[in-house]
Design a protein that fits this description.
The complex is a heterotrimer of chains A (333), B (372) and C (518). With 333 residues, chain A is mainly alpha-helical. Chain A contains twelve helices and two strands; from the N terminus they run ααααβαααααβααα. In chain A, helix 2 packs parallel to helix 4. Classes of the chains: A mainly alpha (333), B mainly alpha (372), C alpha/beta (518).
Chain lengths: 333, 372, 518
């Protein structure tokens, strides 16, 4: 195993951990304010849709010509993805908070709506039958552009950055902000109170409804950006799906016990196993099952099975926010 | 006159009215969407969506069979207070077990259906068991097992050789290596009997699966409403502590109901793939049946009998959507309509109180006029 | 006193004038007038459901009244939410503490009034202020302890500090002594008197006549949402207050003959039950016996192991050591169902959590302990007419009131009738041992009398009754023998005819103990 392989593994792990972490953080904000957000899959898709359409427009307007403009374009697209996520999540917020409906209903409806809406819009804009929205190649920062000399897949540094998008540093920044806000600001304290004991928060004058809206909207923002981050690393076009990552992020959130740093760790853990599986023939100590077809499927199982095993041992202490999923009704005492 | 008066206030009637109102609103929303996208063809498109099903009733009923089962799966688990997000995995495992028996072991269809039930039941056992024994969140386990199931099946099917029989289409004279063999080639005795239904409904794949699904739905309703077991299950779902106080073994019931729920989904997989019309494709994505089942169950307010009707409705609209392509719309427009309808289910409590109020007032008005 | 006269009396720091507050179907407050003088301790007395909590919630801004106005120092004020109340220096300690369990003491105190710099929490000044207040009033707390780890008494101190931190001058206490030991109650009374002496004005809600007479200057009585009257405590007696509260003279004693205990029904030997919350055991090496035909009561302050003992006895939880023997059978490891079959009945402490499936109908709840018996089933199917007949019989015998009879949803029934249903169900089983835990919690006097008489009736029919209660009146009046539990151990056994409430209180607080020989 040479340096190149190691670097590849690290690079791909980061690529896949980032969207997982972002969306899981979003789910965490929503649930810690007291609202279960099953619509993460749909939010990711909507965010990716808006961002990709914007990138397409930018491509046609020639933003890809200069590197600076290109990366600015990516950042703007990320913001647009976040904004789309916020607006989309308002639908969930309204159903869960104002109508006090079962929170699984709203989430499921949005998950069904989003991919269908994507296809319909894509056909309307690109022409009938064309679902895939191509992602401009200038969104990717190549190792050469960043100044790393050497051969990709052989030398360490260039391979470490072989797949790099501006969404990665953006995600790390968002993570740090999310962590600090949750534990060190007044807003974070009040948000957590609303997810644990909304009556207590109400009795000291906090507007629980407003706080929960904020929690859901933040999850919409992070989910939207996460959607773009996923789509950028997953392929060269967006075809109205994020491959179930929204649900995986939910799993990571629960696995990470609703805490930012644990979520980060679990996302990396999960991504590592996922990626290691695809490199099975390059990692010497992993058997390659010669003669068997579709060995990749065995290794695909790895992250899920390892996660299940860890869960069996750690779930006794699992502690969801106490009031999550229970609609807050001021009249009930 | 008195019976009609009582009907107005019956909760089931009000619930039905609320559902119908949701559906109507969803369709109106769909129409508005079509108008925005392509005004010229909007009404034709909507008309197509609404009427195509009638021409193709056999297909509608045939396609509704797995939906009925998926809906029952979700509804049954929901009644017991669990959200079975692992329905897709259970469906796939059911299909897998059925096909292994059909193609691999060359067994007749009743055995294959039993195998489907077993496959789904096993896959449903895990989330229930891990929840009861280790307190692992069942949504989490369900999600993980959806993926595990998919990967397992994708791995096993190309590699399984039973008694010299491979599973793939290429092993049985077909040309594609990414799907299982057509049952017509591999084992015709495993195909569900048609009993003339295919002629009755003018659809060549129509078979007794639909009838069996209806019977299973009725069975579910009977179990939940009329049996001691159903009483215990619902008590567990409504108040787990009180159930424990009453001497009910809550853990046992959680596992049991997830097993039943999984079995229902698995049976759905069996019904679909033993109909002879479909081959299991080895795709790297989770089957959407589990999520369609959520739509069906929510539309039916998780009532087993109502699941039959909501499944037929969803199937009807989906087929209508395919016909809409000729007007230039994506078939996914029907999914948008369905998602709106489900979202409105969130309003349902609000709507039910408004409808109840409306019916009460119009009832009073009639009485007043009657007295005059 | 009408509005014109009230305006001429600025001696009232707070006036609630002609307050009406309605909820769907109930008028919780119907034209109530309450006036609080500066520096006084004013009690608000009434039975459950009289409207006391609602009235105080209006004052604290949690509810908006449909009619009426509130004045502070003669000026009309609007209190739309707790922030407004806080701005007027009104604070409230709630009956069910409004504390976030996984937050620290300090975080709970500052929640809602945090110091911030550009949005970031600044806790240093707050910590200083909390420690200073804690010193001044003798309210000992650890600012960094998590609420879930501290005692109930300390939690209440946190609630009080919340008010003091906000410089509240008008302090509302909602049933403050419900969870305190007699010693802690005395401390609280002293603290309240200190506050009053400083010029703070105190409103406290209570249904305990002795406390009101001991500490309050005046008392306002409410009954079923209506204002009955206000009296000076030095000019009245407990009997008079009680009559105002219920509208008739109340029997303080339960009519019962002496017990005639027979065979040993329940034998508890060296039972130890672990605690879920801390490392010590909740119940420690407890042994005693209950005979048929007697009512034995385990008395103690909430949180001393009675709850855990009850759950271990019924099989809802496991004990780590010890045995339970019922009529000679060892049931120590039996399931809940088999203990029930052997003749144990259980009226649980929390009727909503354990006693009823609220979304089931009344008849479905009434057969909760019997649905599996051959009388009520036909193979796998339920015999619905047998269930209906049974339910109708119990409804008649026990006078259980509900909107639509047997098909009424349990959720829509009143607390008293819900409890009656549970009692009916458990008594009709003709148990050999009846475990009743807090059977009259939250009920009005009429329901309490009824349930007490039913318990005595069962005792006279030969059942062994084990009562676990926190209400000393109930303990003294109902039991034939009293066992005091403190920190998981039985620390004394008494005859209610000879022991005093004060003596019991000392044992309940751990100040005294008798060595119990095994």
């Amino acid at each position: 195993m040479n340096a190149g392989t190691w670097a590849s593994i690290i690079n791909l792990t980061i690529c896949f951990a980032i969207p997982l972490m972002l969306v899981a953080l979003g789910g965490m904000y929503s649930e810690r304010s007291g609202v279960i957000n099953l619509a993460l899959e749909g939010i990711m898709i909507m965010g990716a849709l808006v961002a990709c359409l914007l990138l397409r427009m930018m491509d046609q307007a020639g933003w890809g010509d200069s590197a600076g403009k290109a990366q600015l374009g990516v950042l703007l697209a990320a913001l647009a993805a976040g904004a789309a996520g916020v607006i989309f999540s308002l639908l969930l917020a309204f159903a869960a908070i104002n109508l006090k409906a079962d929170q699984t209903i709203g989430g499921t409806a949005l998950n069904i709506f989003a991919p269908a809406f994507c296809v319909v819009i894509a056909w309307a804009i690109q022409g009938q039958g064309i679902t895939d929205i191509a992602i401009p190649s200038w969104t990717r920062l190549t190792p050469e552009a960043m100044g790393f000399a050497g051969k990709v897949n052989q030398d360490f540094l260039p391979t470490l950055f072989k797949k790099f998008y501006m969404t990665t540093p953006l995600a790390i920044l968002l993570f740090l902000i999310a962590w600090i806000v949750l534990y060190y600001t007044r807003f974070g304290l009040r948000l957590r109170a609303c997810g644990e004991h909304p009556q207590a928060a109400d009795s000291v004058g906090i507007n629980v409804y407003k706080m929960r809206y904020a929690g859901v909207m933040i999850s919409g923002f992070l989910g939207g950006v996460g959607g773009l981050a996923y789509v950028l690393v997953a392929g060269t076009s967006f075809s109205a799906t994020v491959g179930g990552y929204g649900f995986l992020a939910l799993a990571v959130m629960i696995f990470g016990n609703w805490r930012p740093w644990q979520i980060f760790g679990c996302a990396v853990f999960f991504a590592l196993f996922k990626v290691a599986g695809t490199f099975y023939n390059l990692i010497p100590f992993l058997p390659s099952f010669s003669g068997v077809q579709k060995v990749s499927n065995i290794y695909n199982l790895l992250p899920y099975i390892v996660t299940m095993i860890v869960l069996i041992f750690t779930s006794k202490k699992s502690r969801a926010p106490k009031a999550e999923g229970i609609p807050y009704d001021k009249g009930q005492r | 006159m008195k019976k009609l008066g009582n009907l107005r206030e019956h909760p089931g009637f009000i619930s039905l009215m609320a559902s119908l109102l949701s559906i109507l609103t969803g369709l109106v929303f769909g129409l508005v969407l079509l108008l925005i996208l392509n005004p010229a063809n909007a009404f034709a498109g909507m008309g197509n969506m609404l009427s195509n099903g009638i021409r193709d009733m056999g297909n509608v009923l045939y396609s509704s069979t797995p939906l009925i089962m998926a809906g029952l799966c979700i509804a049954f688990a929901y009644k017991v207070g669990l959200f079975n997000i692992g329905a897709s995995g259970q469906y796939t495992m059911g299909a897998f077990f059925a096909l292994v028996c059909a193609i691999g072991f060359q067994l007749p269809w009743p055995v294959c259906l039993l195998a489907a039930i077993l496959g789904g039941a096993i896959w449903g056992f895990f989330p229930g068991f891990f929840k009861a024994k280790f307190n692992v969140n069942e949504v989490l386990t369900g999600i993980l097992f959806n993926w595990i199931g998919m990967n397992l099946v994708n791995f096993l099917i190309p590699n399984l050789v039973i008694g010299g029989n491979g599973m793939l289409s290429t092993n049985w004279g077909g040309s594609a290596s990414d799907r299982t063999a057509a049952l017509a080639d591999a084992n015709p005795s495993a195909i569900l009997p048609r009993l003339g239904l295919n002629k009755l409904f003018h659809y060549s794949y129509m078979n007794i699966g639909f009838i069996l699904a209806i019977l299973v739905a009725v069975l579910c309703w009977v179990i939940l409403r009329k049996t001691v077991f159903g009483y215990e299950l619902r008590a567990c779902g409504l108040n787990r502590n009180a159930a424990q106080y009453a001497g009910i073994n809550a853990n046992k019931n959680i596992v049991l109901s997830m097993v039943i729920s999984g079995a229902l989904a698995g049976l759905g997989g069996g019904f679909y793939y033993l109909a002879g019309g479909g081959q299991l494709n080895l795709l790297q994505e989770i089957s959407s049946v589990g999520f369609d089942g959520i739509s069906v169950a929510l539309l039916a307010s998780c009532n087993p009998i109502a699941c039959i009707f909501s499944a037929i409705f969803v199937s009807y609209i989906n087929l209508g959507g395919i016909a809409m392509q000729s007007q230039g719309y994506a078939t996914e427009a029907t999914q948008i309509v369905i998602s709106v309808i489900i979202y409105l289910a969130a309003f349902s409590l609000l709507m039910q109180t408004k409808i109840a109020g409306f019916l009460k007032r119009s009832g009073k008005k009639q009485k007043k006029e009657g007295v005059k | 006193m009408n509005l014109a006269e009230a305006a001429k009396n600025p001696e009232y720091v707070i006036e609630m004038l002609h307050i009406t507050k309605e909820f769907p179907g109930i008028k919780a407050n119907d034209d109530i007038t309450l006036q609080l003088r500066k520096g006084e301790i004013h009690a608000l007395l009434g039975e459950n459901g009289a409207g006391k909590s609602t009235l105080m919630s209006v004052l604290f801004g949690l509810y908006q009244p449909e009619q009426g106005e509130i004045r502070k120092n003669g000026q009309v004020v609007q209190i739309r939410d707790p922030n407004d109340a806080n701005d007027l220096n009104i604070g409230m300690v709630h009956q069910h503490f409004k504390l976030v369990e996984c937050f620290s003491v300090l975080d709970n105190i500052i929640l809602g009034v945090e110091d911030t710099k550009m949005g970031f929490l600044q806790k240093r000044a707050a910590r200083k202020k909390v420690l200073a207040l804690s010193e001044k009033y003798g309210l000992k707390v650890d600012p960094d302890a998590l609420i879930q780890d501290i005692s109930v008494g300390m939690q209440q101190r946190v609630e009080i500090l919340k008010m003091l931190y906000r410089d509240n001058e008008i302090l509302i206490f909602d049933e403050p002594t419900a969870v305190l030991t007699p010693q802690e109650i005395d401390e609280l009374m002293q603290i309240m008197k200190d506050f009053a002496a400083e010029g703070k004005s105190i409103l406290f809600i209570s249904h305990k006549l002795a406390e009101i007479m001991a500490v309050a200057d005046r008392c306002t009585v409410l009954r079923k949402g209506k204002y009955i009257g206000t009296v000076d405590t030095k000019d009245t007696t407990m009997e008079q207050l009680s009559a105002m509260m219920v509208g008739r003279q109340v029997n303080f004693k339960v009519d019962k003959q002496d017990a005639k205990p027979g065979e040993v029904v329940l034998d508890v030997q060296h039972v130890t039950v672990p605690s879920k919350v801390h490392k010590n055991n909740a119940v420690r090496d407890v042994s005693f016996q209950v005979r048929s035909g007697e009512i034995v009561c385990i008395a103690g302050i909430e949180g001393n192991g009675q709850t855990e003992f009850g759950y271990a006895l019924t099989g809802l939880e496991k004990q780590s050591h010890g045995t339970f023997t019922l009529c000679g059978h060892d049931i120590s490891h039996a399931t809940v169902r088999s203990r029930s079959k052997d003749g144990m009945s259980h009226v649980p402490e929390d009727r909503h959590k354990y006693g009823l499936v609220l979304d089931y109908s009344l008849e479905q709840n009434l057969v909760l302990q019997r649905y599996w018996q051959p009388d009520f089933r036909n193979g796998p199917f339920i015999k619905f007419d047998a269930v209906r007949q049974y339910a109708d019989r119990l409804i008649g015998e026990f006078d259980i009131r509900s909107g639509q009879g047997a098909v009424t949803t349990a959720r829509s029934m009143s607390g008293g009738n819900q409890q009656k249903a549970i009692v009916a169900r458990e008594l009709d089983k003709d148990p050999k041992l009846l475990l009743a835990v807090q059977p009259t919690r939250g009920l009005d006097v009429g329901a309490i009398e009824y349930i007490h008489s039913q318990l005595v009736r069962k005792r006279d029919e030969g059942a062994a009754v084990l009562l676990i209660s926190l209400e000393l009146d109930e303990v003294m009046n109902l039991s034939d023998r009293i066992l005091v539990m403190y920190e998981g151990e039985i620390v004394g056994e008494f005859d209610p005819k000879t022991v005093t409430v004060e003596e019991l209180g000392l044992y309940m607080a751990g100040a005294k103990r008798t060595e119990m020989n095994a």
